[in-house]
Amino acid sequence: MSHRGVFFRLAGGWILAGVLLANPMPGRAIVVITVSDPWVRVAPNGKSAEAFMEIRSSERATVVGAESEISAEVPMQQPGTKRATTSGIALPAGARVKLAPGAYRFLLPMLNRSLKLGDRIAMDLIVEGADGSRQTIPVNAEVRRRSAYDDHMRARSHAH
User: Fold this and answer.
1) Which residue, 59, 150, 34, 54, is CA-closest to 106?
2) 6, 29, 109, 127: which is deepest, by most CB within 10 A?
3) pLDDT-derived band at 159, boundaries 50, 70, 90
4) pLDDT tens-digit profile of 32-91?
5) Taking the CA atoms of the chain, what radius of gyration do you get in angstroms?
6) Cα 3–106–80 angle (5° rounding)?
7) Per-residue pLDDT reduced to its tens digit, 9-37
8) CATH number of the domain within which 153 lies
């Protein structure tokens, strides 16, 4: 099996389409994972951050982990304000799963360097398919105050 990633620039954000390619076997689907609008928000103290994005899978799958060079660990946080973590984020087939402030998100609890607006952060998402196969999806997230979509909507509301 090999993994291919393709980046697309759309509406101020980046989309990465990751595809798990295998020799098609009867009854085995090809899983397509897309990640859009990845961004990172640094905590006011500058020592930690959270990562957000939208993820869609063509088939039922689960995000089972994440890694980044910026933090020794990248736990997945459950919705809410308490620091409760989860071992997986379900990706229903065809549904868009939005990781956002107050919703599921990735924690970068101990940054190994300071970050400033506009910096790019590399992350790898580990996604497990319903058949137990795993793939790694590379993500390139921008350090921002809010999502590109939120910036776009804010600019439109001030234009009137």
Assistant:
1) 54
2) 127
3) low
4) 999 999 999 999 999 999 999 999 999 999 999 999 999 999 999 999 877 799 999 999
5) 16
6) 140
7) 444 444 444 444 444 455 555 789 999 99
8) 2.60.40.1890
Residue type, 25: M
What is the identity of the amino acid at 20? L
Which range of residues forms the domain containing residue 101?
2-158
pLDDT of 104 above 80: yes
In this structure, which amino acid lies at residue 32? V
C-alpha–C-alpha distance, residues 136 and 127, integer Å = 6
- For the chain, how many structural domains are there in total? 1
Strand-pair category, 76-77 with 105-108: antiparallel
Phi-psi region for residue 102, left (φ > 0), alpha (ψ -120 to 50) or beta? Answer: left
What is the token pair recorded at 140? Answer: 């390139």
**DSSP letter assigned to residue 111:** B
Number of residues in the chain = 160
